[in-house]
Amino acid sequence: MSIDTRPLTELANHDDFLQRHNGPSRQDVARMLEALDAPSIGALVDKTIPDDIRLRGELNLDGPRGESESLDYLRGLARQNKVFKSYIGQGYHPTHLPAVIQRNVLENPGWYTAYTPYQPEIAQGRLEGLLNFQQMVMDLTGMPIANASLLDEATAAAEAMALCRRANKKHKSERFFVADDVLPQTLDVLRTRAAYLGFELIVGPLEALAEADVFGALLQYPGVSGEIHPLETAIATAKGNGVMTCVAADLLGLVLLKEPGAMGADIVFGNSQRFGVPMGYGGPHAAYFATSDALKRSLPGRVIGVSKDSRGRPALRMAMQTREQHIRREKATSNICTAQALLANIAGFYAVYHGAEGLRTIAARVHRLTTLLADGLTRQGIALKHDTWFDTLTLVGVDTHRIQGRALTREINLRYPADGEVGVSLSETTTAADLGELFDVLIGEEHGLSVSELDREALAGDSSGIPTAYRRASEFLTHPNFQRFRSETEMLRYLKRLENRDLSLTHAMIPLGSCTMKLNATSEMIPITWPEFASIHPFAPNDQVTGYRQMITELSDFLTEITGYDSISMQPNSGAQGEYAGLVAIRRYQAAVGQDERDICLIPSSAHGTNPASAAMAQMKVVVVECDREGNIDIADLQAKASQHRDTLSAIMLTYPSTHGVFEANIRQACQIVHDNGGQVYIDGANMNAQVGLCRPGDYGGDVSHLNLHKTFCIPHGGGGPGMGPIGVKAHLAPHLPNHVMTPQDGIEPDSGAVSAAAYGSASILPISWAYIKMMGARGLREATELAILNANYVAKRLEGHFDVLYRGANGTVAHECILDMRPLKAASGISEEDIAKRLMDYGFHAPTMSFPVAGTLMVEPTESESLYELDRFCEAMIAIRREIGRVESGEWDKTANPLVMAPHTMSDLMDAEWSRPYSRELGAFPSEAVRDAKVWPAVNRVDNVFGDRNLICSCPPIDAYRDA
Ligand SMILES: *Cc1c(COP(=O)(O)O)cnc(C)c1O
């Protein structure tokens, strides 16, 4: 063979990454086009996307750049960040992520590429991890019920406030008390939420609570300046006055401090970051949220509950809240959808790894070091603000400026709450040597203090910042899961065992419509554990985060170009939070132009449940716009409702392409109608994967959109979070984007309150989206969108004649997903969409989205990352299942004993001594050639949802429960 004679400049695989991100090869594309009878992808796209919204020409983006080149560039940006030792505290602390968890969970696609456990039979591993998290939270807080994470401590506080108002039937006021030593970022978010819920915040010292005429109260435990309040009397008095109490508690502190549950708190919440999750310049981390038993039915977020499977064995699944928003719409308890599952799992595993003893040692060390710091400082005549502490001290009457100078020289960050005050928070990572260095900084080098000397004296004098009456007396983490896996070998095997129970993208395509389960490339994931991104406190000074800021600016520029908007806010840390932030921006803008009265939000009946839930949180009144028989917005109804409400119309929330999987032809007109009637247009960008490079919401009428970076832009779903939901806005809304008390933003109104705890949301996962866009470039992104559309149309075509595709666009094509209607099959055979979903597990697949947006359907979104091989494998499984349904329909198989209603099949089924079913074991468990090769075994049989909802249990079941069954 002759050697390639191209010149050196051409001997490079410029397209290498895009060909790896995109599943179909050139030959695949040719075959799919042939099947679709389409001359080219261009022709298919022309048929699919309305001509009047098409982007002419290519996006103006750099790239594509190779994987190593992009990582080198990011490495350069990372190096511009300065990783100082952080004693800032204020809700975020350095922590040691155990290496066995870092490598086998955080850096492991078996964990991070899974989706929210909608199909529990193939998600028992992460459900157990989340149940551990809930058990840990319940134990440490002393509360009987906990959820499986919220987005951050500040938004959890807002959820707590809203929950108090809903649940408190005794006190009718619209006022909420907040202790004045609350974390400042929490107060910022509370202010935003309170404004649109119509609440007045009363901020004052804890002592003022007894006299406050409020429906609820939030107490920080310990306070931001380190003081530990004896909450017992305050809570009891409040209770006597009909006031509900919420305690924001430090999880590590609770190891030593009396648990709020034992003091009568109604709600306890906080951040679990310091349980092994890097600070990451703000996130992602899991907030925890626990309540009294009385509140269990109105808990926001997802709750993992114990139910049983069809063999009567314990089986886990998400409890009733799962589909809450889709059912209750604007009456939903909250808009939380994506939460922080991966991070909750990590925090739970941190507790599994350390157990109660390990946590006691860590907490005791942190506390001892803080005590020694206090002793040394007071000995040198430095006054402390409080005489109680767990891990945080506030020095008073000191020369802040000099201390700051010395600290910066030594690459140390402290908290500077006021002139003359310095705050210091110690952490798991603080050592005795660090303490010596802190003395040098806080006192000056001639202090002559010895840490070991101080330690001896402290022990002799029984010195502590936690008075005896405030100490924890109860046990915690007594469940065997927190005792058995203490050696690394045991821990490794436990993590692997759980991972092996779950189906993730490492096994098969996950065709969940509206969820965009595309490739999360390894290169994209590499930077998130670099210390220069991971170990940065969200409130580190600006000059230490220039690399972060540059990366965020570049990503914002990419996203403005991709969406056609003028400005981006990275603050919202989920899609639903983006919706809320966008609607709030609209309301702020309308208030600023004297249109306060505009509060009607039009929402099509097909909308995702978070849309009406977010509108309700922004104090808007939802008016539903109907869809026509083709699934499109009924323009006549829209016109009628928009003009009926023209004096009070605030906005419309449209999803595009619609949740019905179609590019509606009249989107421009729909936007125009709303504008003509004085409203703003919110485009839900969850389906941006069908638009990137082909059309832009900012061009066809959108004023604001959120983007789900965890859908379109490759942040992995983590089994239910993390996510990022930045919003793009037109220039007139830009001043009304969220600002942040700790990180003021240029060009944004100073009184535009925050929506998240950190100014850039979950900043540490932004490099993933940055890398994706950089490595794809404009052409690669466009090709990805085209292939997403091609793949969806191919699936629709291959399944034609077997299943009905419910909605199609004007020219007979679908967008990037398609809805398969199972209702006719159910009518004819009794086999439901759920039976099909469970039977798919036997074939090795995760089901498509079930019963959203239309009950009785399955919505398939293949994404561009799946190859023709995999698409065919999925379609063949679906067709085989259709044939099986035919056998039920014809009466050949019994309606109640067939492989569909008895799916999924487990190893236990095969091991039954008696096999009395009217089909073979082989047909049950090995229905296709592919699964004979590689089988993902469902860990349990079909889970009984109703039983679990009637008997809500969200703690780890005793080991005997498994044995008895
Ligand atoms: C996923 C999704 C959302 C919600 O996003 P989260 O990040 O889960 O909060 C909103 N709308 C649509 C159409 C979605 O698919």
TrEMBL record:
The keyword Oxidoreductase applies. SUPFAM superfamilies: PLP-dependent transferases. The keyword Oxidoreductase applies. It is an enzyme of class 1 (oxidoreductase). It comes from the Bacteria. Gene3D superfamilies: Aspartate Aminotransferase, domain 1, Type I PLP-dependent aspartate aminotransferase-like (Major domain). Residues 784-905 form the Glycine dehydrogenase C-terminal domain. Pfam families: GcvP2_C, GDC-P. The modification N6-(pyridoxal phosphate)lysine is found at K711. It catalyses: N(6)-[(R)-lipoyl]-L-lysyl-[glycine-cleavage complex H protein] + glycine + H(+) = N(6)-[(R)-S(8)-aminomethyldihydrolipoyl]-L-lysyl-[glycine-cleavage complex H protein] + CO2. Belongs to the GcvP family. The glycine cleavage system catalyzes the degradation of glycine. The P protein binds the alpha-amino group of glycine through its pyridoxal phosphate cofactor; CO(2) is released and the remaining methylamine moiety is then transferred to the lipoamide cofactor of the H protein. HAMAP family: GcvP. The glycine cleavage system is composed of four proteins: P, T, L and H. This is Glycine dehydrogenase (decarboxylating).
